[in-house]
Write a structure and sequence with these properties.
Length: 245
């Protein structure tokens, strides 16, 4: 019990330290630059306390649960030596975590509202829901494909920089031909996919797999999957916009 309390206190202090720069910047501009009092200060303080508590519990959950689980699953698949099963698991992991990503859900809903206001889609609730759903599915499939590419790269030992360079060259070539209204959404989709749910499990998968394969270095080969998860949504969403236009 005492150890749990110490770890919890350490986590709270770490969360406060991580949030301190954001708090100081907001307070400085609100008080010094804008010279205005905080609106609803009580609600702001309650919200800040909830953020600190949530961040503390989230980090604790990653360290005690998700990271060990992801590494163990990757090592078990590698031990069985079944590449199709590992590839299927990698795709499902990328797809499932991205579909549940809160940031993607929010961005897809906002993109649907903006598209409706701009006249790109019908202004009905069903049209907006369909647009947001299709966008989420495209991004989720792209992240699933990204994790597959990353897993195969670890197994084969391919250099990561050539894959990343090739991916961004592809994005650069596709951008002028994609509809203008989808370009910004595509670029933003690459960022929102790598958030609270996706990153921990994907990182744990890469590290665990590189630890289980002989000749692989977890520091060199274990990381990089998240880069693919940020890159492939750009390609897939741009392609989606070009096909649907």
């Amino acid at each position: 019990m005492a150890r749990f309390i110490r770890n919890l206190a350490k986590g709270i202090l770490g969360a406060i330290r991580d949030l301190a720069p954001i708090i100081l910047v907001i307070a400085f501009f609100q008080i010094v630059v804008l010279q205005q009092p905080f609106p609803n200060l009580g609600s702001v303080l309650v919200g800040l306390a909830c953020v600190i508590a949530g961040l503390t519990l989230f980090i604790q959950g990653l360290e005690s649960g998700l990271f060990p689980l992801g590494e163990e699953i990757a090592q078990e698949f590698a031990a069985k030596g079944s590449l199709p099963a590992l590839v299927a698991f990698a795709f499902c992991l990328g797809f499932g975590t991205t579909v549940a990503e809160p940031a993607l859900i929010a961005v897809a809903a906002e993109a649907a509202d903006v598209a409706s206001e701009a006249g790109a889609i019908l202004g009905t609730e069903s049209a907006r829901a369909e647009y947001a759903f299709n966008l989420r599915m495209v991004v989720a499939v792209s992240v699933g494909a990204a994790i597959v590419i990353g897993v195969v790269r670890i197994i084969k030992g391919w250099p990561i920089h050539w894959l990343i360079i090739g991916g961004y060259v592809t994005v650069t070539l596709m951008t002028p031909f994609a509809p203008e209204e989808i370009v910004g959404v595509a670029y933003d989709s690459g960022g929102v996919t790598t958030s609270t749910i996706t990153v921990p499990l994907v990182a744990a998968l890469g590290i665990g797999l590189s630890m289980a394969i002989k000749g692989r270095n977890p520091m060199i080969d274990g990381f990089g999957l998240i880069a693919f998860a940020s890159l492939t949504p750009l390609v897939f969403v741009l392609a989606y916009g070009m096909v649907m236009s």
